[in-house]
Amino acid sequence: MHSVSSILKEDSLLPYLRVEGKSCLSGHVNISGAKNSALVLMAASLLCKETLVLNNIPKLTDIDVMTNILKSLGANIKRNKNKLQINASGLNGNQKELPYELVHALRASLVCIGPLLTRFEEVKIPLPGGCRIGARPIDEHINGLQALGVNVRIKDENIIAKITNPLRKLIGTKINFKCKSVGATETILMAATLAHGTTIIENAAEEPEIQDLANMLNKMGANIKGAGSSQINIEGVNRLHGCIHRVIPDRIEAGTFLIASAITRSPLTLSPVIPHHLESVISKLEEAGCLIEQSNEQVKIIPPQTINSVDITTMPYPGFPTDLQAPYMALMATARGTSKIKETIFEKRMQHVGELQRMGSKIQLQGNTAFVSGVKSLKATSLTGGDLRSSAAMVLASLSAQGISIVEGLSHLDRGYENFEDKLSSLGVNISRSMIKSPNRMKKNTKILEQPNIVSSDAEVA
Description:
Elements: E1 13-20, E2 28-30, H1 35-44, E3 51-55, H2 61-72, E4 76-80, E5 83-87, H3 100-105, H4 113-120, E6 122-126, H5 139-147, E7 150-155, E8 158-163, E9 174-176, H6 182-192, E10 198-202, H7 208-219, E11 223-225, E12 231-235, E13 244-246, H8 251-264, E14 268-271, H9 279-287, E15 291-295, E16 298-302, E17 312-313, H10 325-332, E18 338-342, H11 353-358, E19 362-366, E20 369-373, E21 382-384, H12 388-400, E22 404-408, H13 410-416, H14 420-426, E23 431-437
Parallel strand pairs: 2-14, 3-13, 9-10, 17-18, 21-22
Antiparallel strand pairs: 1-22, 1-23, 3-5, 4-5, 6-8, 7-8, 10-12, 11-12, 14-16, 15-16, 18-20, 19-20
C-alpha cells in the first residue's frame, strides 16, 4: 500500500484532486461569469481611453494571463474580487508587439489584434497557443482583416498586421466567413466598430458570447445590429467610451454541473443562468430522462436512477456545444444502451476516450465518432485530463466511480472553472486538492490506496 506522495520521487510538484466516488450531490450551485465572454470583453477595453468596469469576472488562470497581456501593453487594471476596472488610456504606442510567452498560453489573446490596429495602425502578435484540441486555423481572422484594408503577413511564427491605406483607418466592407468562427467574428466585430463606413459580417457566429460583446460595445457607443444572428451590421463610429457591464453566466460551467447532477443521479439547482443559452444541453438531458424546471435565472434538474443513452453531434451554437462533449461522454458511459457521440468542431477532441476506457467504460472510437455502451459502474483509478473540458470530464466520471480516483491535469481545469472542487465540496462531494512530486502523470497501473475501496474488477455492461 502506497501513499500518494510516495509513488514518484521527482522534485516537481503538481496539483491533483482526490475524488471519492459514488457521491450524492444536493443543494445549489452558483454559476460564475462566462470565461469565453470575459476574455474578449477585456480585450475590448483597448478600444477606448476611458475606464471599463466589468462585473462578474471569474477567477481563472486564463483571466490572469489576459490581465498580464493588457498590463504589458500599458493598461491600468484594478481587481476587487469579481470586479475588474481597466483603463487603457496609457497604452504605450511603441508597444505594438504582444509578449510571446503570454500569447502562447492563451489562444483568446488573438482577439487583441483588432483593437490594437484601431489604436496604433499596426501590431505584431505571436501565433496563439491554448488547449491542443485541433488546428483551429486563423484564416478567417486574417481574411476578415485583409478585407477591412489590413496588410497581414506571417513571419517567424508571428502575425504582422498594418493599416496602409491613406485614411490610416480600417475601411468598412462586406465579409462572408467560409465557416462560422467565434474568434474571427469577435475580432472583426471589435475592429469594425471604429472603421470608416459600414461593415457587414455574413455567416457570423451566433454564440451568446458574441451577443454579450455586442451589447457591451453598444453601451460604449458602437452601432451594432444583428448580433446573435448569422448577419451582423456594424456602422463605424469615431470613438468609444467607458461603461459598466456585467458578464453573462457561464453556460459551459452550468452545463457541466447539470451533467454532474445527471451522472450522480442527484438533484441540483443552478443560478444565475440564462436558460435559453442551455437549450441544446437541456433538450438532450430531458431526452435522457431528466426532469428540468426553468424559472427566470434558475434551473433545477432531477435525474432518474437510470439514464437513457442519447446521441449527440457537436455543432456551432445553438447546437450542442463541443465544450460539453467530454463531460457528456462521461455521462453516457453510465447510461442504459449505446449512444453515438460525433465531434464536428475539433479534430483532436477525443483525448478523454482512453481515460474513460481505463475506468471500465465501453467505448469504440472511429475517427471523431465514439460509440458508447453504458456500464453499471465505472471504477476509480488515476486519471489525467489532456485539455480543459476533458479534465472536467475526468472529475465527473470520478464522482460516479466506485472508489477513490486521483485526477491530474489541473492546470487545464483551472483555466476554465472557478473554485470547481470547492463548489463540488459544498454539494456534498468528498474532494480535496493536494500536491504530488511528479513531472509526469502518475503511473496508470498504480492503485492509489489511501482508502482500501478501489474496485479492480471490470465494469459490467448495463
